[in-house]
Write a structure and sequence with these properties.
binds pyridoxal-5'-phosphate; globular; 9 helices
């Protein structure tokens, strides 16, 4: 049975995307270098369907089971969008990750990298850093990033970038955390820096983000997780 999907207002999402692109430019970002990802986690398939109808090409999901269930109800056009996985990924969920995922952004330990390499040889990944050493957040400690990147490369994974979620803190602290991540990416010659969300995209862009991951400012607040 087809569930009734949330009816998002496509024109409103277009307007929200426009506002976000202006925020990126105002923060000094170059729109040929900074991409806008629509984070559709916690919403039903109405969100990716509307985002793609509004012209967005890049989508992010965070929970494997929810993602798999959602895909049954996305439009053909949404299925053809570029999907990234940005959530915490347990090793035993790797095999259930949908085929359409082109980048796994949340690789934060060697055991996970090994399982990804086994199930999806040559997979494109980003390595996720824990920018504020916050125990409740995913991510590899900053001083472990270069070892983890080397390990991923040994495993045949295609490492193209880094991802991080800054602490909820003063803008100067957030800026410094994103700058530190960008400098690690520079050292490791990783082109993609997935940094910035609704609340802190300005700091992330100022630090050289190439991809901001936005949920709330596109779709409104997320429903409570079932
Ligand atoms: C939920 C989430 C986002 C989007 O957050 P908003 O504040 O709604 O823009 C971005 N990145 C990650 C890793 C997330 O889990």
């Amino acid at each position: 049975m087809t569930p009734s999907l949330t009816a998002f207002d496509v024109a409103a999402i277009e307007r929200n995307a426009e506002i976000l692109l202006n925020r990126i430019v105002d923060a000094g970002g170059d729109l040929s270098r900074v991409r806008l990802m629509a984070v559709t986690k916690a919403f039903d398939a109405g969100a990716p369907n509307a985002a793609v109808a509004a012209g967005m090409l890049l989508l992010g999901e965070s929970y494997v089971q929810e993602f798999v269930a959602k895909l049954d109800h996305v439009t053909e056009a949404a299925l053809e969008a570029e999907w990234h996985f940005i959530g915490r990924l347990q090793r035993n969920k790797v095999r259930r990750l949908p085929e359409c995922v082109s980048v796994i952004q949340s690789v934060d330990n060697e055991a996970l990298a090994a399982e990804i390499a086994r199930r999806r040889p040559g997979q494109t990944v980003f390595v996720q850093a824990n920018l504020g050493d916050e125990p409740q957040k995913g991510g590899c400690p900053m001083d472990g990033i270069s070892t983890l990147v080397a390990k991923c490369r040994d495993l045949g994974l295609q490492v193209e970038g880094v991802m991080g979620v800054a602490e909820q803190a003063e803008p100067d602290v957030v800026l410094r955390q994103y700058q530190e991540l960008a400098s690690v990416a520079d050292e490791l010659e990783l082109a993609e820096r997935s940094m910035g969300m609704t609340a802190d995209l300005e700091s992330a862009v100022a630090a050289g983000s190439t991809m901001v991951r936005i949920g709330t400012a596109l779709f409104g607040s997320r429903p409570a997780k079932a």
